[in-house]
Design goal:
This protein is mainly alpha-helical. The protein folds into 2 domains: 14-74, Arc Repressor Mutant, subunit A; 78-223, Four Helix Bundle (Hemerythrin (Met), subunit A), CATH 1.20.120.530. Helix content is 66%, strand content 5%. The chain is built from 10 helices and 5 strands, in the order H-E-H-H-E-E-E-H-H-H-H-H-H-H-E. It has helices at residues 14-27, 39-46, 50-62, 80-104, 107-122, 126-141, 147-154, 157-167, 171-189, 193-214; strands at 36-37, 67-69, 72-74, 78-79, 222-223. The protein has a 3-stranded antiparallel beta sheet. A two-stranded antiparallel ribbon has the order 4-5. The protein is globular and about 55 Å long. Mean pLDDT is 85; it is low at 225-229.
Length: 229
């Protein structure tokens, strides 16, 4: 037997578990934009001490999911300019990413992407459609052959999820998203990198246009990103 045979799989640190749980709560809109995140309340809700909560909040601040102001952590209010900047970065990087996938997709990749597309087409509610869109995005990002490009796009993934939840409320926006996913999978199936690039450019431009329609602005021009009615 090797030393590896006696190794014990260690559980991830508690702070990492708390970070994952809080990230999920943020992107699923358990909290409203602008809400203060009180360590004691979060610790009580998650049945942990304040220390892993504090560590998790610092990690989420680095990821752009929370911000510090007024002596505490808050759910951020993103301005329209913030969102436009994120989309500008996506417009530069994501078309190349999907072109690379189209050029190198394996049969297993295609089957996974086709299955994700079919789950999206079968969605009947806003929540199902949103979750299916998010899952499809995670699936193709995981297949980007350039790992540095993949890691760079993943840094913006939580913000993209929040924007997507804000835009897919409208039936026409959901229909446009379905059409975009179908066209992208068709480009992957055809191994057509040029078509994949073109589809993603149009997809991103349409998503930004829908977001700009859907946003709710406050007096100081801050977006209540994904705010619940």
């Amino acid at each position: 037997m090797t030393e590896a045979d006696f190794s014990v799989r260690r559980e991830p640190p508690l702070s990492a578990k708390v970070t994952d749980r809080l990230r999920q709560m943020l992107v699923t809109q358990v909290f409203n934009p602008g809400d203060r995140l009180v360590e004691e309340d979060l610790a009580r809700r998650l049945a942990v001490s304040r220390t892993p909560v504090r560590e998790a909040l610092f990690r989420l601040e680095q990821a752009g999911l929370v911000e510090q102001r007024g002596g505490g952590f808050h759910v951020p209010l993103l301005s329209l300019r913030d969102v436009q900047d994120i989309f500008k970065i996506r417009r530069l990087l994501e078309p190349q990413a999907v072109a690379d996938i189209a050029a190198m997709a394996t049969s297993d990749d295609l089957r996974a992407l086709q299955g994700a597309r079919d789950r999206l087409l079968a969605a009947t509610t806003v929540e199902e459609a949103t979750n299916a869109n998010i899952a499809f995005r995670a699936l193709w990002i995981a297949r980007i052959p350039n790992r540095r490009l993949q890691e760079l796009l993943m840094r913006f993934d939580d913000q993209v999820v929040l924007v997507r939840r804000a835009t897919l409320v409208e039936p026409v926006a959901r229909a446009a998203a379905r059409a975009g996913v179908q066209a992208l999978v068709a480009a992957f199936e055809a191994r057509d990198a040029t078509a994949a690039r073109r589809v993603m450019e149009g997809f991103i431009d349409a998503a930004l246009a829908w977001f700009e329609r859907a946003v709710t602005q406050s007096e100081d021009d801050c977006i209540l990103l994904g705010a619940r009615p």
